[in-house]
């Protein structure tokens, strides 16, 4: 295969279950705060949430709480938030205004 012909979409076609959309929320249970290469490509822009509760004890209330938190997040998909122009205050009045 010619490396020049490999695209993001061509690569994605060879992943596990390519017909499913990318992950929006990755919920990790058991107190670990890592993704462990789980769906590394598909979860690149996923919102991460970590629970101390072990998986067998997670119930619908935990899932509902996670979905509520997810709903209040601002998805940026890898972009950096825009920073407003900095204007300096008159001399002697502290740090630049943000």
Q: Which structural class should the secondary elements be placed in?
A: alpha+beta
Oligomer state equals single chain
Task: Assign an overall shape.
Answer: extended
> What is the percentage of strand-forming residues?
5-15%
Query: What is the number of helices?
Result: 2
Strand count, sense and barrel status of the largest sheet are: 2 strands, parallel
Helical residue percent? 10-25%
Low-confidence stretches: none
* Strand order in the sheet with the most strands: 1-2
SSE pattern: HEEH
- Overall mean pLDDT stands at 85
Your description of this structure?
There is one protein chain. The chain has 98 residues and is of the alpha+beta class. 17% of the residues lie in helices and 8% in strands. The chain is built from two helices and two strands; from the N terminus they run αββα. A two-stranded parallel ribbon has the order 1-2. The longest helix has 12 residues, at 60-71. The model has no long low-confidence stretch (mean pLDDT 85).
Which characteristics define this entry?
2 helices; extended; single chain; 17% helix; 98 residues; 8% strand; alpha+beta
Question: In summary, what is this structure?
Answer:
Helix content is 17%, strand content 8%.
Blueprint of the fold:
Elements: H1 8-12, E1 25-28, E2 47-50, H2 60-71
């Amino acid at each position: 295969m010619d490396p020049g012909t490999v695209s993001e979409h061509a690569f994605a076609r060879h992943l596990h279950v390519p017909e499913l959309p990318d992950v929006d929320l990755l919920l990790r249970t058991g107190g670990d705060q890592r993704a462990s290469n789980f769906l590394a490509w598909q979860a690149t822009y996923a919102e991460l949430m970590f629970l101390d509760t072990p998986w067998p004890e997670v119930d619908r209330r935990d899932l509902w709480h996670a979905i509520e938190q997810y709903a209040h997040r601002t998805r940026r998909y890898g972009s950096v938030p825009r920073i407003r122009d900095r204007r300096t205050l008159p001399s002697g009045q502290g740090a630049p205004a943000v």
